[in-house]
Structure prediction request, 183 residues.
Amino acid sequence: MSSPVPPSPPMPLTAALPDPAAIAAAAPAPVVAPPVTALLADSVRDVAVIDTAVRLAGPRRAPLLIVVALPQHPHPPPTPEADEYTARLVMARVLPRVRRSGLAYLPVTHRGTSGGTRLRAAGGVLDVVARHRSPVVVAATGGPPRLDARTLAEAAALRGAPFVHAVTPAGWVPPPLRLAPAG
Prediction:
């Protein structure tokens, strides 16, 4: 003869709530678009570069990777505090425009090496861009001699990526004079 089967426990009237950590783990992570890179070189062209980068990143709500290219020194490099001060000065010129756009941004400084070719100098910037997986670089056509948009585009073509968007800032035109008639 078989032994009697024990009765099953009664079913609760309310279901247990799932663990919030399990819900968060099951939810898909928000998709963040890859950043748009703006190459700043401490010149008046930086404003045009950042405006173009904001226009490219705005529709996708992509963050901005702001690369501040510091000048190359053949002698021992200056202190990190001097680099930070220079980078802050360059960023102060463009940050009001970035904040007005409401986009996220990541500032990065890059100091190239004094030796080597122009393509090697451009390759150093492209290494920084590749580390952050940015598909687009915005640079000025009249930038520093070894980091202008043409040199970056040439180095990017040799590597196969990223796309370099060249910006040619409009020339400054003085406003017309409003002279009152002599009288």
Observations:
- The mean pLDDT is 83.
